[in-house]
Design a protein that fits this description.
It is built from 26 helices and 13 strands. It has 664 residues and is an alpha+beta fold.
């Protein structure tokens, strides 16, 4: 048993020697220390400070060597147990106002020797191929691995204890920390650093702000007026002090010819000597904006109050939102703009903001609405030519609504300004109000009806003369008068007179047309064709003539009546005569029966005596259908007349010889 023990001791000694001989980089020890510090001592490396629990990120240095990304403040952990090294570290910290030093407790003298041995053992185990070792060595290596893990657990506890019992030093002086739990001690020590480094953090007065409060802060500031009872708005009262500091910063930039942005203010107040939380700085900006102490512009346009809270929180916009001091305007000009808003837009004092810029914005918005309303009114009433007079005022209103607040609060109300308030007020009195009142009143319907009648009866007007023509000319002149909306009663009288005269002319024309129908009816009745026609054919002709007369009663236009009369005379009349003629029975000779028998075997006209053939009825045509001969371009002499009449006679005879019956 003893021999076995000596054998195993020798193997263990060999492995122990191999571990001690393992080369490691000194940074490996620091890495392990850093891992334990972060996981067991520091946590997320942020510290909540003050009543607001404002979050501050900090960086880690170990023995002065940076172990994390760059941060505004630092914790420097000193690991040496050597008194001189520790004194040097304290001395090096003097003047480093962004750093607090933690001197680990040095009562655990073997802490870092054991940490080094842990790293050596871990490195040895990672480099050694356990499977290639003897069974005995494998057992020893396994025990070493378990022991090293146990050592690591102990090291974590010992390092936490060293940190918890460590000493804080800031700027060469010892910092008293009351907390005993390690993370609470870290927070307390770092809190001391924050309080001494961010000297203006206390301006926030212990008030906590959230981004979601921004809209309410802006609204409260806009409603808060001097003379309100103390304590009515505790949050606002506490905002006054830090907001004054932000206002001073904006003023300093203004004095240097610079314009601050939301981003530049957030950066400035997030760093030394302020360290303000993001939401707190936004709250101060919102408070100043709501109380009209600063202005916000984005892309050259003022930020609307309804959009301010959202835009201030939008990180992509913050660098583009300019923060400036309000412009000072001539109170007389501001008063004149208020008068214009009352006289032109009908706004009351209660409708208008007290702030000059807000006033200009309100006027701009209402001018745009006015232009849109007039444009819609013009489109709806495009049938009236006079609405074109609205085009110029609409253009000028659009011009004014597109100008800056500076222009509205300055040049706009000057008498000599083109497209200015004086010009718009003149348009309102002379053009806008009269036209709008007319279009929204009952007389617009009278005018529309008159114009509609004039348009619909234009075909009849072309056939009138005398008094009726004069009445039409007067009505048309009024219809084209740009001021017709001021003369509606006169126009109505003119249309009524014209309608009466035109109706009388139409009735006369209709009576003449109906007389022509009856004349043709009489001629048909007297015709041989009608006398020999069947009763059915006569009835059909009567029905068609009745229909023509009935249609004539309904035709509203003179030219249509004349066309119908012409159609009756030139086409319908001959067609009716021919229909009557076709219905009459044809006389036959004594041999007609024989001729009918022969028809079955040969053509009707072939070798049949003329006396046996039926008489072919003539086709009735209108006299107007006979082509008028062209003998000369003009008749100037008696011979010209004789030649023309001879030629016409030949045309008429030719038509008769061709079986035509010419109706006169």
């Amino acid at each position: 048993m003893g021999d076995t023990y000596n054998y195993l001791t020798n193997e263990e000694q060999d492995i122990e020697q191999e571990i001690k001989s393992t080369d490691i980089d000194s940074s490996k020890e620091i890495d392990e220390l850093k891992k334990i510090l972060v996981s067991d001592v520091l946590g997320k490396m942020t510290v909540a400070y003050g009543e607001q629990r404002a979050q501050f990120r900090y960086g880690l240095r170990i023995d002065g060597v940076q172990q994390s990304a760059q941060q505004p403040i630092w914790l420097n952990v000193v690991t040496s147990t050597n008194a001189q090294d520790r004194a040097d570290a304290i001395r090096m910290g003097m003047g480093m106002r962004d750093t607090i030093t933690l001197l680990l407790d040095m009562s655990d003298r073997t802490l870092f020797d054991d940490l080094r041995m842990y790293v050596k053992t871990y490195t040895y185990l990672m480099r050694t191929d356990k499977n290639s070792q003897s069974e005995v060595r494998q057992q020893i290596i396994s025990r070493k691995s378990v022991a090293n893990e146990r050592l690591y657990t102990e090291l974590r506890t010992r390092i936490v204890k060293a940190a918890a019992n460590g000493e804080f030093d800031y700027n060469g002086g010892k910092v008293e920390v009351k907390s005993t739990e390690v993370q609470a001690r870290m927070a307390e020590g770092l809190g001391t650093l924050i309080g001494r480094y961010y000297t203006n953090f206390s301006l926030l007065g212990g008030q906590r702000y959230e981004e979601t409060d921004l809209a309410r802060i802006i609204m409260n500031a806009s409603q808060h007026q001097p003379g309100m009872l103390d304590g009515m708005n505790a949050v606002q009262d506490k905002l006054d002090v830090p907001a004054d500091d932000v206002f001073a910063a904006v003023s300093r930039d203004k004095g240097k010819g610079m314009v601050a942005t939301v981003k530049s203010l957030l950066d400035a107040y997030g760093s030394v000597p302020y360290g303000w939380p993001y939401a707190a700085t936004l709250a101060c900006i919102g408070h100043l904006y709501g109380s009209d102490r600063i202005t916000l512009t984005l892309d050259g346009k003022p930020v609307q109050r309804s959009e301010a809270a959202r835009l201030l929180r939008e990180t992509k916009k913050q660098d583009s939102i300019r923060v400036d001091l309000p412009r000072v305007f001539d109170t007389r000009k501001v008063s004149q703009l208020r008068d214009f808003a009352r006289d032109f837009l009908g706004l009351t004092a209660a409708d208008l903001p007290s702030n000059a810029i807000d006033l200009a914005e309100a006027v701009t918005a209402r001018l745009k609405r006015e232009a849109e309303s007039l444009t819609q009114l013009r489109v709806r009433n495009a049938q009236f030519g006079f609405v074109q007079q609205l085009d110029e005022p609409i253009e000028k209103i659009n011009y004014a609504s597109g100008m800056s607040e500076d222009w509205l609060l300055g040049d706009f109300t000057a008498q000599e300004t083109e497209n200015g308030s004086e010009e718009l007020l003149e348009f309102k009195e002379d053009v806008i109000d009269p036209i709008v009142a007319f279009l929204n009143g009952s007389q617009s319907r009278i005018l529309a009806d008159g114009l509609e009648w004039l348009k619909n009866n234009k075909p009849n007007i072309d056939y009138v003369s005398g008094t009726t023509a004069s009445l039409y000319q007067s009505a048309e002149q009024l219809a084209n008068d740009p001021n017709i909306f001021r003369k509606t009663n006169k126009f109505k009288t003119a249309i009524d007179d014209l309608r009466e005269a035109t109706e009388a002319t139409i009735q006369t024309e209709r009576a003449n047309a109906l007389k022509d129908v009856e004349d043709i009816r009489a001629r048909i009745h007297d015709s041989t064709e009608c006398q020999h026609a069947t009763q059915a054919a006569q009835t059909k002709v009567e029905t068609e003539l009745d229909q023509v007369a009935e249609r004539m009663q309904r035709i509203p236009f003179i030219y249509k009546m004349r066309e119908s009369v012409h159609e009756l005379s030139e086409r319908t009349y001959p067609q009716l005569i021919n229909a009557l003629a076709a219905s009459a029975p044809r006389p036959k000779t004594a041999l007609a029966g024989e001729a009918q028998t022969a028809t079955a075997t040969m053509p009707m006209d072939a070798n049949i005596p003329e006396s046996q053939q039926k008489e072919t009825p003539r086709v009735a045509v209108s006299f107007a259908t006979i082509s008028r001969p062209h003998t000369k371009d003009a008749l100037e002499t008696k011979d010209d007349v004789d030649d023309f009449l001879d030629a016409y006679r030949r045309e008429l005879i030719a038509a008769i010889e061709n079986g035509k019956k010419i109706l006169l």
